[in-house]
TrEMBL record:
Signal sequence extent: 1-25
Pfam families membership: Slp (PF03843)
Ribosomal protein listed as a keyword: no
UniProt-recorded name of the protein: Slp family lipoprotein
Length: 169
């Protein structure tokens, strides 16, 4: 009984703290007053959010290179505490990331997880398939395409079941 009490007081909190410490830190600093709205919410009233900072992420849908800038269409997902897209949470709209210059499409492959930090710059009407759609526009200051290893990092490969067991994912 005494050993169980010691475990509960010392080892268990240390174990939980250790697991929490495995999660990578956020990659971008969130400015005071940054917008917490989703792309879907911003698309409904874009004028309300003009020039606010956002940190959004999701999956790359398409890359378009234009004469003076590039546009990356992104299907948005909520972000975890490390600012990685959480695909299990369901999509939260689409937006267009505006990048200066040329964006190499091979560096932004369709389906790749991405996080961008930038400033809202209005919206644009467009289409998703045959449906009309309003895309918020984000002038990107920084962007990060996540590797498979980065998406897995910080997720402990420990599973608990009846009793205690350890499994490899």
């Amino acid at each position: 009984m005494r050993h169980a009490a010691i475990f509960a007081r010392v080892a268990l909190p240390a174990l939980l703290l250790g697991l929490a410490a495995c999660a990578p830190a956020p990659i971008y600093k969130i400015a005071p007053g940054a917008i917490a709205a989703t792309p879907m919410q911003v698309a409904q009233t874009p004028e309300q959010y003009m020039h606010g900072q956002v940190i959004w992420g999701g999956r790359v849908v398409d890359v378009r290179n234009l004469p003076d800038h590039s546009e990356i269409e992104i299907l948005a997902y909520p972000l975890d505490s490390s600012q990685r897209p959480k695909f299990s949470a369901g999509g939260s709209g689409r937006f267009i990331a505006l990048l200066p210059g040329y964006a190499e499409p091979m560096n932004y492959p369709a389906g790749a997880p991405i996080t961008v930090d930038g400033q809202l710059d209005g919206s644009r009407a467009g289409k998703v398939g045959e449906a009309d759609y309003v895309f918020p526009l984000v002038s990107v200051a920084q962007s990060h395409v996540w590797t498979a290893e980065e998406m897995r990092s910080g997720h402990p490969n420990i599973g608990f079941g009846v009793g205690v067991g350890v499994g490899i994912r």
